[in-house]
């Protein structure tokens, strides 16, 4: 199966999905980013993979017969199978604004960091029409992670080894700076101007994804 991308805009649930893959199927995953602080969730050398990543590493894994699940917030590199993780766009923007300490309007407009905008990421990956792509919503993970695990099992053609044991609260307690934004936003706290900007920028993607 070589590389399977775990694609998600930041703070949309890719770490949550990695937890399900590891706990239910014992499927290891990697990240393109230095995530040493998440090693306790996934085991192994969480930061080494990111240091080794480049064209040579990509070619090596892409030609491998083994499964390599790789988390990415970046634009697609190929047409390999993918799990596309998405979260309500306004909550995603609020969460990232809080985590990066960047004004919400900059995040909404896609000027808050290197990963562009929420809907820009969605349209780059086109998960609804992209072949061999499973869409997983953060809200589905929160509501019934075992049902998401069932769909992941169908995608990977793997039988679950156990039910999901949610360690998210443990993770939040151990590293509050990484997980303290997971409650997303209260819609009453966003300014009318920011709300209008969000829907102007991302309304179409929200409708396509069934959030509106």
What does this structure look like?
With 212 residues, this protein is of the alpha/beta class. The protein has one domain (3-208): P-loop containing nucleotide triphosphate hydrolases (Rossmann fold). Helices cover 48% and strands 11% of the residues. The chain contains 12 helices and 5 strands. It has a 5-stranded parallel sheet with strand order 2-3-1-4-5, sandwiched between helices. Helix 1 (14-25) packs across helix 9 and helix 7 packs parallel to helix 12 (192-208).
Helix content: 40-55%
Order of helices and strands: EHEHHHEEHHHEHHHHH
Shape, per Cα inertia axes: globular
Distance between the termini: 35 Å
Key structural traits:
Rossmann fold, alpha/beta, 12 helices, 5 strands, 11% strand, 212 residues, five-stranded parallel sheet, globular
């Amino acid at each position: 199966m070589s590389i399977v991308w775990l694609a998600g805009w930041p703070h949309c649930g890719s770490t949550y999905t990695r937890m399900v893959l590891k706990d239910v199927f014992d499927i290891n995953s990697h990240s393109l980013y230095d995530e040493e602080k998440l090693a306790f969730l996934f085991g192994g050398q969480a930061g080494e993979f990111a240091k080794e990543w480049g064209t040579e590493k990509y070619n090596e894994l892409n030609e491998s017969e083994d499964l390599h699940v790789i988390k990415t917030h970046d634009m697609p590199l190929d047409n390999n199978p993918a799990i596309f993780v998405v979260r309500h766009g306004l909550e995603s923007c609020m969460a990232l604004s809080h985590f990066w300490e960047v004004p919400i309007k900059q995040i909404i407009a896609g000027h808050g960091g290197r990963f562009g905008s929420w809907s820009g990421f969605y349209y780059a990956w086109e998960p609804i029409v992209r072949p061999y792509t499973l869409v997983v919503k953060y809200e589905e993970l929160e509501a019934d992670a075992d049902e998401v695990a069932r769909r992941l099992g169908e995608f990977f053609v793997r039988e679950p080894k156990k039910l999901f044991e949610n360690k998210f609260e443990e993770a939040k307690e151990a590293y509050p700076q990484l997980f303290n934004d997971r409650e997303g936003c209260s819609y009453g706290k966003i300014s009318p101007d920011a709300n209008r900007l969000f829907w102007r920028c991302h309304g179409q993607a929200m409708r396509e994804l069934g959030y509106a």
